[in-house]
Design goal:
Distance between the termini: 86 Å
Structural class: mainly alpha
Number of helices: 2
Shape: elongated
Helix content: 55-70%
Order of helices and strands: HH
Radius of gyration: 30 Å
Oligomer: single chain
Strand content: under 5%
Number of strands: 0
């Protein structure tokens, strides 16, 4: 029984060393690689984020929704 426990301890130590080594390699590789995010995509190149006039679009959409409601309620 003691041999099995000892063997498991050695195996767990080996597994710990392997996982630590893999984590270290992963950490090194992630620093070296350029992560491809959505912001990096060609599709978004040249576009801008919503500026200070976003409230204007909100009002336009709201007025269009109100107009549709009025049109369908009156008809």
């Amino acid at each position: 029984m003691g041999i099995m426990v000892e063997g498991n301890e050695e195996q767990s130590k080996l597994q710990e060393r392997i996982s630590a080594d893999l984590r270290e390699r992963s950490r090194r590789n992630s620093r070296d690689e350029d992560v491809d995010l959505v912001e990096d995509s060609e599709y978004l190149r040249g576009t801008q984020k919503t500026g200070r006039f976003s409230w204007f679009w909100f009002i336009l959409v709201s007025l269009a929704a109100v107009a549709l409601i009025i049109i369908f309620v009156i008809k």
